Amino acid sequence: MSTLTIVLVGILLLVVFGLLFRIQILTAIFSGSTTREIGTSNRVNAVLMLVFMVVGGGLFFYSFVEAYPKMNPPIASIHGHAMEKMFWTTMIVIGIAFVITHVLLFVYSYKYQYKEGRRAYFFSHNNKIEVIWTLIPAVVMASLIFAGWKAWTRITGPAPKDAIVLEVVGKQFNWFARYPGRDMKLGVVNYRLIDASNDLGFDLSDKAALDDFMASEIHVPKGHPVLIKIRSRDVLHAVYMPQFRVQMYAVPGMPTRFWFTPTTTTDEMRAKLGNPAFNYELACNQICGLGHNAMKFIIVVDEPDDYQAWYAAQKPNSQNADMMASFKQMSKQTGLGQGNSQEAKKSAIDETGESPATPLAGQASL
Amino acid sequence: MATNLTGASHGQASVGAATAPATTHDDHLHEHDHHEQHWLWKYVFSQDHKMIARQFLITGMFWAIIGGILSSLFRLQLGWPQATLGWLEPILGKWVIGGKIAPEFYLALVTMHGTIMVFFVLTAGLSGTFSNFLIPLQVGARDMASGFMNMLSYWFFFVSSVIMFSSLFIETGPAAAGWTIYPPLSALPQAIPGSGMGMTLWLVSMVFFIVSQLLGGVNYVTTVINLRTRGMSMSKLPLTIWAFFLTAILGILAFPVLFSAALLLVFDRSFGTSFFLSDIYIAGQALPNQGGSPVLFQHLFWFLGHPEVYIVIMPAMGMVSEILATNARKPIFGYRAMIGSLIGISLLSFVVWAHHMFVTGMNPFLGSVFMFLTLIIAVPSGVKVFNWLATLWRGNIRFTAAMLFAIGFVSLFISGGLTGIILGNATLDIQMHNTYFVVAHFHLVMGSSAFFGLFAGVYHWFPKMFGRMMDEKLGYIHFWLTFAGVYLVFMPMHYVGIAGFPRRYYAWTGFDAFSQFADLNKFISTAAILAFFAQFVFIFNFFYSIFRGRRATQNPWNSTTLEWTTPVVPGHGNWPGEIPAVYRWPYDYSKPGSESDFIPQTVPYSATPESNLPYERELAE
Fold first, then answer.
1. A152 with B368: Cβ contact below 8 A
2. Is A259 inside a domain boundary?
3. Are B156 and B259 contacting, i.e. CB atoms less than 8 angstroms apart?
4. HEC states along B289-329?
5. From CA B227, how far away is CA A191, in angstroms rounded?
6. Domain that holds residue A320
7. Helix H or strand E segment including B34
8. What is the predicted pLDDT for the residue at B26?
9. Is A131 helix (H, G, I), strand (E, B) or coil?
10. Residue A21: predicted pLDDT
11. Contact between residue A202 and residue A208 where contact means Cβ atoms under 8 Å apart
12. Does ipTM exceed 0.85?
């Protein structure tokens, strides 16, 4: 019954609109406004241009100020602070351009609305001002490019020698973190050895893989450069850590990387935000399937001492009986991971990226 | 069969007339006008560019409604993630489970919304409609260079549309890997249900679409180069034609690359190759594929994808230039700079594609290069904006519905374009990539702007298309509702983006970092759905005016360009007599000394001694 009522009301409303429309046309014909070339609506539209600028601009300003405190994720990395500064500087530059061009657009629209007897000014070109307004944006853009380029090369440049290395691997629909263990070397993995108990396909015939360990959340020490090596097991994912201003795709078959230096521990950030439940979060930011929005991973920034204690308490692969058993079986099935498979070794090294053997002096001294 | 032959010979006759000196064929054409064509050849398999344009337009409008409905559906989910949408169940069936939109359906919605809007509405609907309609009319040709190829272009598009539309109704759902269809997600049916049959249909549909684009593009370029009427030199072309011409060139060069990407993806999907696949363990199985690169696909895709956004926006730029000049009663400011900036944008559009890929693992050095090239493109874009503003300055503006949309276009283009300066900066893109900041940016700068260009074009050229006027008042209502609606949707979306909200998320509820803007998302959804419903004002106005609109005069906007010298409803061949010759540029509005405030291109300088500029006096002799 209610559906029927709604449909009826809808139909009646449409009929009313139709009638109003008809009346509008008939009155327009009757009043002769259809034969006049420029009617009063021209003036109404011109005024609306000004109204739109003032009301729209006001609403924009008000809503921006209102939303601003919620807009900026807290920053917890060194390059994040630089990026934030660059972002808001650029916002101010484009904000100025936005205001100037829009004021001109709406004010001109209002000011130069049709007036009986006035004639538009025949003004086809002026090389001088055209050169000026080509050069000004060019110079502004050049300075923005330069600043952006400097920061970009620094952020994407090689990680410091003493950076802590860990690996993050994405799969539908969760993340794995792996650490190199005591030897500071990430061991060989091979995707053909993957199994329910061996999520990354560790080749346990490689000694370096035996002391690697997997962690259920990422731990990193405050104030120390961290190099994240990133891989994917199936489709594209993206490691997105908004508070650290870190983002990099996880690409199957092509390891990627990102390094950063955390500046604030989780506890410090909790105190700062007054939110005892706060956690740094890692989100997937490249569409990867039905659970795309559920790929959350927690990052914990520890004081260096706490980090070292946590690191020491982790159980290496060699103590994971399930994984060892699974590896033995998969190794038998595939013929891989028997220390004799050159091919597997080679491709595995490609996967883990260059020189897992970096001395990591910093980490060792922690 | 007899009618068939008549139809075909008719088309050829008129094309012949366009290439040969027109005078000798006058009688011939008159003769043809006498016997009526069968409706099938007149309305369906028409070779007349004006009919094909109308076909593109109406198909494009159909797609726009579908695209709009899809976006309203996913905005429901994003605005009210907790709501029970039981009332959708009778319509959507199994895609709504227990009043909740299914996640796979949500991803399909965003994917198909993007695909439909970018390709079927803004590429085919906008450029297909107006390139077809205006190129012959404004360059002074009887029809396109090849009417038959032009007809094929529409029908390939039609087939492509049918396939894409049918993919909405299949068991496993349409493609759902995002409109950019990045493999491996799009390559593996076990990764997402939409990558089964849905993706196959998507790829097949796109192949037809690309063929359609190429057939159309070759025709546009040929027509502009070869079929210009006497006196219509390239430097006397309206900016619309320059824009369509360059757009067609971009399409011809870019679409084949998408074709190759699609083909390689088909191979990976069906024939076991490994162009884009490597080291994949999925659904409990290690795949044998080795050595492919998903990043390679992204390069191929964006080599089309980036020129594509200019393919979408440049026709709108051209039409807006034309409409602003006509209704400000002023010459477009800096005609040559406008052409120069179009050429600059066209060239640069081919060397900026990888700014979509700063954080995909591409070599950071390439990132630097592409950042540099990307930010340069802001310069010609800026020149265009300043020239449009200078065109309004000291004009005598008539606010037709088309003019309002043209002004709206400039506003949206500025608002969306400026944030491109942030996203083009590789450093800032680290944080902004794939967030709602990007979504807001491109919806303003290419989505809404191009739509505004489309609306402006329809309102402006409707009298020439259908011989009747659209209702102005409804046009005003449509404009103000849409203009306000678009800003209410996309301005707040920037805030959500700056906060880092990732796009293509079914819900953000799992993350503390993305929990603060639930009310804002509700607001955006409300505004989006209202703005969508406002479009029905336009649709009503459009169809009502086709049949019952006020009859148009020959040149209702007092415009200078050639299309307004044709009869109110131009027949096959466009001009009943000889094609008029062109003597001057298309922007002689409010010329000092002239009594009328516009001088059509067909008026020779010798007829206007009172208004000729010094250098034109020589041309008059």
1. yes
2. yes
3. no
4. CCCCCHHHHHHHHHHHHHHHHHHHHHHHHHHHHHHHHHHHC
5. 60
6. 164-365
7. helix B26-34
8. 44
9. helix
10. 85
11. no
12. yes
Every domain of chain B and the residues it spans = 46-274+288-392+409-548
Model's pTM, two decimal places?
A: 0.92
CB B218 within 8 Å of CB B252:
yes
User: How far, in Å, are A278, B236, B265, B522, B610 from residue A259 at the CA level?
Assistant: 23, 56, 33, 37, 72
CB contacts, 8 Å: B502 with chain A: 240, 283-285, 293
Q: How far is CA B82 from the centre of its chain?
A: 36
HSE at residue B282, side-chain half, CA atoms within 13 A, is 25
In a domain? residue A238: yes
CB pair distance less than 8 Å for A87 and B591? no
DSSP E strands: which ranges in B334-383? none
Name the token pair of B156. Answer: 């390939």
Measured between CB atoms, which of B333, B411, B504 is closest to A287? B504
Search chain A and give the residue with CA nearest B491. A60
pLDDT at A339: 65
Q: What is the dihedral of CA B301, B307, B313, B318, to 10 degrees?
A: -150
The 10s digit of each residue's pLDDT in B456-465 is 999 999 999 9
| Shortest alpha-carbon distance between residue A217 and chain B (Å) | 15
The Cα B383–Cα B362 span in angstroms is: 32
Q: What are the φ/ψ torsions at residue B294 (nearest 5 degrees)?
A: -65, -25
Contact between A148 and A86 under an 8 Å Cβ cutoff? The reply is yes
Q: Compute the nearest-CA separation of B621 from chain A (Å).
A: 23
Higher pLDDT, B16 or B486: B486
Mean pLDDT by 10 residues, chain A (366 residues): 84 88 82 72 94 96 94 94 95 96 97 92 92 92 93 93 93 94 88 91 89 94 94 96 96 94 96 94 95 95 94 92 90 78 42 38 38
Residues in chain B: 621
The band of B20, judged by pLDDT with boundaries at 50, 70 and 90, is very low
Distance in angstroms (rounded) separating the CA atoms of residues B30 and B51? 19
Four-residue CA torsion sign, B109, B110, B113, B116: negative
Q: What pLDDT is stored for residue A272 in this prediction?
A: 95
Work out the minimum CA distance from B282 to partner chain A, whole angstroms. Answer: 6
CB pairs under 8 A between A and B: 339
Could you tell me which residues are beta bridge partners of residue A257?
A: A229
Residue type, position B99, single letter: G
Measured in whole angstroms, how far is the alpha carbon of residue B493 from the centre of its chain? 23
Kindly tell me the sign of the dihedral angle through the C-alpha atoms of B51, B57, B59, B62.
negative
Stated as kind and residue range, the H or E segment containing B114 is helix B103-115
pLDDT for A23: 85
CATH number at residue A307: 2.60.40.420
Q: Which residue of B has its CA nearest to A344?
A: B279
For residue B16, pLDDT over 60 is answered with no
Distance CA B211, CA B217 (A): 10
Asked if residue B249 lies in contact with residue B159, where contact means CB atoms within 8 angstroms, the answer is: no
> Which pLDDT does position B83 carry in this prediction?
85
Classify residue B278 by its DSSP letter.
Answer: -
The percentage of residues in chain B with a pLDDT greater than 90, rounded to a whole number, is 85
Provide DSSP, B524-542. Answer: HHHHHHHHHHHHHHHHHHH
Task: Detail the DSSP E strand segments found in chain A.
Answer: 164-171, 174-179, 213-215, 218-221, 226-232, 237-241, 246-250, 256-260, 280-284, 297-302
The number of folded domains in chain A is 1
Q: Which CATH number does B46-274+288-392+409-548 carry?
A: 1.20.210.10
- Does residue A287 fall inside a structural domain? yes
First to last CA, chain B: 54
pLDDT of residue A27: 83
A317 CB-side CA count, 13 A: 33
